[in-house]
Design a protein that fits this description.
With 230 residues, the chain is of the alpha/beta class. The chain has seven helices and eleven strands.
Length: 230
Amino acid sequence: MQPDEPLVLALPKGRILKEVMPLIRAAGIDPEPAFDDDDERRLRFATNVPGLHIIRVRAFDVATFVAFGGAHLGVAGNDVLMEFAYDDLYAPLDLDIGHCRLSLAEPDPAGPLGHMVTDAAGDTPHNVGHIRVATKYPNITRAHFARHGIQAECVKLSGAMELAPALGLSRRIVDLVSSGSTLKANHLREVAVIAHVTSRLIVNRAAFKTRPNTVGAWVNRFREVAAHAA
Ligand SMILES: Nc1ncnc2c1ncn2[C@@H]1O[C@H](COP(=O)(O)OP(=O)(O)OP(=O)(O)O)[C@@H](O)[C@H]1O
Ligand SMILES: O=P(O)(O)OC[C@H]1O[C@H](OP(=O)(O)OP(=O)(O)O)[C@H](O)[C@@H]1O
């Protein structure tokens, strides 16, 4: 990471992008027009700010790009930050967007999956020394159950976790919940909230130390913008 290299800001390309762009623009950053073109195949974009580029990557990869120094700044949910627990980044600012929760869910006893008291791993609601859970968050899930003295075997999925109980992968899932409508539509119920989730501004620690004037100035700018939006 050379001091004269452009600063790189990593943004998640999925659902959070719509919520984060007003903050980016309020901070005075306008990406080149191609950024808004869904057919554009480039992933790195110049902005109106000389020496500041934006990359558009998957939400789960923002933390990795920033932790490895490929990007200096980024926006990521604390679900992603908890899952990876990178030492090389820090999250100085809650942007108060992307509100949801990371929860444990299981078949709703009153619904058509209510008969599912066991899963392929043999666990029951009353015999849970070892259980199986389908999730995109195996590290958080294992740590959560370990705190309760339970060993969780995780089936790693990248989406559509809510299908797992009906199709026999696992009785339980750990996934993000916002309105609760996805759980309901799949005959599941939320049984425990593991973490409340919002999106954070994240910063590569080394970049913050070696380029305090530029990286620190952006952190301050986003702090002002977030305070004003609140
Ligand atoms: N239902 C939701 N409501 C609010 N925020 C959410 C919700 N689901 C996810 N988020 C937040 O958005 C981030 C990205 O969501 P998700 O992992 O579902 O990716 P995506 O936007 O579907 O894109 P992709 O899976 O293609 O990377 C999550 O890490 C979380 O912080
Ligand atoms: O409680 P709700 O308001 O229904 O939201 C929860 C859903 O939102 C997220 O999925 P998303 O829509 O991002 O799709 P994905 O499975 O492709 O990540 C999450 O994984 C849940 O499936």
